[in-house]
Amino acid sequence: MSTSPTTQHRASQITKGDGSMVRVLVVDDEHSLTELLRMALRYEGWDVRTAADGFSAVKIAREFRPDAIVLDIMLPDIDGLEVLQRLRADGTETPVLFLTAKDSLDDRIAGLTAGGDDYVTKPFSLEEVVARLRGLIRRSTLTLAQAKDPVLAVGDLTLDEDSYEVARGGTPIELTATEFELLRFLMRNSRRVLSKAQILDRVWSYDFGGRESVVELYISYLRKKIDAGREPMIHTVRGAGYMLKAAG
């Protein structure tokens, strides 16, 4: 990875709405790896903290309040999944990028099911981690306030891009950052069939290893939260993709 700053790179830096630095927590017990990531992320202009074990990660996250977390699944005390569960129990919806040495779909899905937003498999390139973090941060509340029309409404479903609030029939619905962006994409294209490839490209901003199963997984998450006990709004168009439309 090049470490020579360029005007183009500096111009593309992400900052918060108030102009302050983005905060990222990196959690891994490999010191050399955390130092490489610290260097790469500081080059992005971000404020970076590190932790070498799960308990430290939870403590630092509560104090530092990061805007994104890079979290290794295999840690010496509690694993990354347990770390995330504890943070989510605090009400924290910070986007999480899992690091895993296991190249199996089951392990990746376990991380996503636990509430993670993305993952990379070791060994990985620093450029890949930075690119995925930039995508997660852009999809988070840091940039939602820039939308011209902050409130989307389809039938009795509303999504406020300023406050990050979602409700159906007036009942609040809690979503992760990735679920929020998926629903936002569906709502902005209501009554339009979106293919899995389109959803992958827009919501994850890259080819998710060619695995369209992650789209199915997140559509199922949304259905449980949006459609459970109500007339369905999210529809599968066999062989074509998915469509969201007002119930009734």
Automatic annotation (TrEMBL):
Q: Which UniProt keywords apply?
A: DNA-binding, Phosphoprotein, Transcription, Transcription regulation, Two-component regulatory system
Q: Name one GO biological process term.
A: regulation of DNA-templated transcription
- Summarize which parts of the chain are annotated to bind DNA, as ranges: 149-246
4-aspartylphosphate is carried by which residues? D72
* Pfam families in UniProt: Response_reg, Trans_reg_C
For the Response regulatory domain, which residue ranges apply? 23-137
Domain spans labelled OmpR/PhoB-type: 149-246
Q: Cross-referenced SUPFAM superfamilies, in alphabetical order?
A: CheY-like (SSF52172)
State what protein this is by name: DNA-binding response regulator
